[in-house]
Amino acid sequence: MNTRRRLLLGGASALGLAACGELPRKPDLPAPRPAAARLKPRIALALGGGAARGFAHIGVIKALETNGIVPDFVVGTSAGSVVGALYAAGHGPFELQKLAIQLDESSVTDWSLFDRGVIKGEALERFINTNVGNRPIEGLKRRFAAVATDLQSGEPIIFQRGNTGTAVRASSSIPGVFPPVAIGGREYVDGGLVAPIPVKEARSLGADIVIAVDISGRPSGKKNQGSLDVLLDTIAIMGGALGKVELHGAEVVISPDMRGLASTNFQQRHEAILAGEKVGFAAIARVKDAIAAWERKNG
């Protein structure tokens, strides 16, 4: 009996040791799949500042879309953020043109004598929010970012979330004209002070190809200008050298002829749109070449 028990225990021990030596093998994990190659480049439209000259952006957009070139996202500074937000909200180029032509200047200017600027900026904010359907930036149909300047640090800030009208107002708040805009406990002013044409910002957001639209123009050179003209000319001079550096980072630079178009004259909106359209159509071949070059390199 004892012998039989010893045999059974020995057999069980042997089976147990054998089992330990034959641990169940974990199934091989499938090899990770390589990331699918993108067939198309990410195209960003970088729209620069220039006050009333910003209507030229509409003409450029019209030329691009007419030729089947639709950007994946838009980054705008100052006037570029105004057009960029409306475009990102789903307004096509012809809708943008209609909005521009029918624009009542008083609907975006609310004068103030008792603040840190002569225009409050609240009317501009309302105009934008109304025409984007009161959607936040992240709720727009096309990806959009507005560039402003942090007044405390002097650094460019890219707004990609939050109230669209407030972000555009901050991006467009020319010091002395508009008061700084308070967001999250900090104050912001016009993005054109540090990023007059937001090429670097567009690249930082993942653009493969940046189409930069420069509407800055040269200072008017006229004598006996009003104080606003002098201020805007001063900003144009300050931003000129910085803008040239920015433009070196773009694959395509589109510069409408702004001669004779004052940055303070909203009555020349039709001429500005035509100027943008003309140079936009002339740039189509360069845009297509940039796309083809990217496809050859990454195909």
Automatic annotation (TrEMBL):
<dbReference type="InterPro" id="IPR002641">
    <property type="entry name" value="PNPLA_dom"/>
</dbReference>
<feature type="short sequence motif" description="GXSXG">
    <location>
        <begin position="76"/>
        <end position="80"/>
    </location>
</feature>
<dbReference type="InterPro" id="IPR006311">
    <property type="entry name" value="TAT_signal"/>
</dbReference>
<protein>
    <submittedName>
        <fullName>Patatin-like phospholipase family protein</fullName>
    </submittedName>
</protein>
<dbReference type="InterPro" id="IPR050301">
    <property type="entry name" value="NTE"/>
</dbReference>
<dbReference type="Pfam" id="PF01734">
    <property type="entry name" value="Patatin"/>
</dbReference>
<keyword id="KW-0442">Lipid degradation</keyword>
<dbReference type="InterPro" id="IPR016035">
    <property type="entry name" value="Acyl_Trfase/lysoPLipase"/>
</dbReference>
<dbReference type="GO" id="GO:0016787">
    <property type="term" value="F:hydrolase activity"/>
</dbReference>
<keyword id="KW-0378">Hydrolase</keyword>
<feature type="active site" description="Nucleophile">
    <location>
        <position position="78"/>
    </location>
</feature>
<feature type="domain" description="PNPLA">
    <location>
        <begin position="45"/>
        <end position="203"/>
    </location>
</feature>
<keyword id="KW-0443">Lipid metabolism</keyword>
<feature type="short sequence motif" description="DGA/G">
    <location>
        <begin position="190"/>
        <end position="192"/>
    </location>
</feature>
<feature type="active site" description="Proton acceptor">
    <location>
        <position position="190"/>
    </location>
</feature>
<dbReference type="GO" id="GO:0016042">
    <property type="term" value="P:lipid catabolic process"/>
</dbReference>
